[in-house]
Every structure is written in structure tokens, then in C-alpha cells.
Design goal:
Blueprint: E1 14-15, H1 19-22, H2 28-36, E2 43-53, E3 59-71, E4 75-84, E5 92-97, E6 107-112, E7 117-120, E8 148-158, E9 161-170, H3 173-179, E10 183-189, E11 195-201, E12 207-219, E13 222-232, E14 237-248
Antiparallel strand pairs: 1-8, 2-3, 2-14, 3-4, 4-5, 5-6, 6-7, 8-9, 9-10, 10-11, 11-12, 12-13, 13-14
């Protein structure tokens, strides 16, 4: 379960100084795997506010409940159920992340109550906006290491935290088609292993979108993203996800994060509360 979204830093890059020094550093793949597989509990629940911010500063808020759970076979699932406002009430979204050793693409499904229909979000649809946000569907997937050629560029201080800077180049056109990104730069905090920032590049090599974990805190001993922000530099729109009432290692049934649950209403009384 990775609630890792990412914005811009301007502090100077500390370039790797020598071959002998670089031998003591972890590889880019190791850093990414450590971030992906960091301890984040066996289950998770929270309330989430998705704020859509227009070019002129207008704000529309959408609210949803979120459950996540680790299943057997290195599988992770997350269910999001929108409860307000009225125009999105009942919309549900399910993510199924598989271990990379399974060589299987992550799955996503959405339930639209107006049509009483569940549809699978195909790979080429994942570059679309998630519920009108700057975040797209592929941004919600788990970190995939093998889909990219990963290079450790150095170390940098971001948001007051020491971080590794990694450049990621897609290994195929299929990866580009799925995400819409031709190159990504990612900053991963050394201490928490949380993804702090991501810069996304278009076909011309220009940064067009930025994500940042603007607030992270320790909850139940686990480093947690409290607020994530995404900004589209072309449209000048941005989106913020704010996570509240977070609880780890809570009792979440397999049924709760199944396709069948997409059609079931989740109420405030169904959500666990922090002690």
C-alpha cells in the first residue's frame, strides 16, 4: 500500500563524486524496492478529501473512504468509495497490485452507480484523470521497478529532508502509453523511504506535471503521507489529497476489498476510528 504522491525542489544536487564512493551507495533499483516494500502495516483505513483546484483558484471537494489490505501471494488491494458530493456518491474504485515477480499488470476497476455497471480500466486508459483530478489512474499504482531503466543521479535535500534522486526511463512504448510519461525523476526520502517528489516529462523532455508529498507524519510508528499534491504546469490546475482518521493494522476483510464490494455502500459507521 503506497500512498505516495509527490512538487518542485530547487536545492542544489550533490553529484556522485567518485567511482569508489558510488560503490558504497545502494543502486537505484534497491532504493525503489525498499520504498515499495517498506513496512506500512498489513491493512489501512482512512477518510480522504480530494480537492480539485482550478486555474483561477476555484476549489471543488470530493470525499471518499479508503481501505487497503495485503493479501496472500504478494498481492495488495485498495478500495475507494466516494460518499459526497451527491454527483459522485456511490462511485467506487478498486486497485489490485501484484508482485512484479508475477509479471502481471496491476488491475483497476470502477463502479458507476448511474449505470449500475463495473468497468475495468485498461492499460491505455490509465493516463486519464482520476475523478477529474491532476492525478491520473497510473499514479495510483504501486511502484514498478522493472518497467523502467533506473539511474541514481545523486542526493538532494527536499522539503527539509535528505533524499535520493532517481531518473526513470520507460523500457517500452507500452509503459509510456499507460502512464503518459516519457521520463520521470523521483525523490525518495532516505529516512522514511517515502516518495517525496516526482517530476513528469513529456515527449519534448519538458516537465509538465509535478507531484509532492507535502505532509508526512509517523502514525502508529509508520511513516505516512498526510497530504499529497499534484500540479499540471500546462493547465495550471492542481489537486490535493488529504488523508485523515488514519488507522493501520485494522480488521479489513477480503470481501471489503473485492470487486463485489464496489457496489456496496460504505457509511461513516463502517470506518474504524483511531484510538
Amino acid at each position: 500500500m503506497k500512498n505516495v504522491f509527490s512538487i518542485i525542489a530547487t536545492l542544489p544536487l550533490m553529484v556522485l563524486a567518485s567511482a569508489s564512493f558510488s560503490q558504497t551507495l545502494p543502486t537505484a533499483d534497491e532504493i525503489l524496492k525498499n520504498s515499495r516494500d517498506r513496512d506500512d502495516g498489513s491493512s489501512y483505513a482512512s477518510n480522504v478529501t480530494l480537492s480539485l483546484i482550478g486555474k483561477g483558484g476555484s476549489i471543488r471537494n470530493r470525499h471518499f473512504y479508503m481501505f487497503q489490505k495485503d493479501l496472500e501471494g504478494n498481492e495488495e488491494r485498495a478500495l475507494m468509495h466516494f460518499n459526497k458530493p451527491a454527483d459522485v456518491r456511490g462511485v467506487s474504485f478498486l486497485i489490485v497490485n501484484y508482485g512484479e515477480d508475477q509479471s502481471k499488470a496491476d488491475d483497476q476497476w470502477m463502479f458507476l452507480p448511474a449505470f449500475r455497471k463495473t468497468r475495468r480500466i485498461g492499460s491505455n486508459d490509465k493516463r486519464g484523470d482520476f475523478m477529474g483530478a491532476v492525478f491520473n489512474y497510473s499514479d495510483l499504482d504501486k511502484i514498478r521497478v522493472l518497467d523502467y531503466e533506473n539511474t541514481l543521479l545523486g542526493e538532494e535535500e527536499v522539503l527539509g529532508k535528505s533524499a535520493w534522486l532517481i531518473e526513470r526511463i520507460p523500457v517500452s512504448q507500452g509503459v509510456i502509453n499507460k502512464t503518459g510519461y516519457y521520463k520521470t525523476k523521483m525523490w525518495i526520502a532516505k529516512e522514511s523511504k517515502v516518495v517525496l517528489q516526482q517530476h513528469y516529462y513529456n515527449a519534448k523532455g519538458v516537465v509538465f506535471k509535478i507531484q509532492q508529498s507535502t505532509k508526512i507524519e509517523k502514525i502508529q510508528g509508520i511513516w505516512t503521507t498526510i497530504e499529497s499534491r499534484a500540479e499540471d504546469l500546462e493547465s495550471e490546475k492542481s489537486s490535493i489529497m488529504t488523508f485523515t482518521d488514519i488507522v493501520y493494522n485494522v480488521d479489513v476483510s477480503d470481501e471489503r476489498v473485492s470487486k463485489r464490494s464496489l457496489k456496496k455502500t460504505i457509511r461513516a459507521s463502517d470506518m474504524p476510528t483511531p484510538e
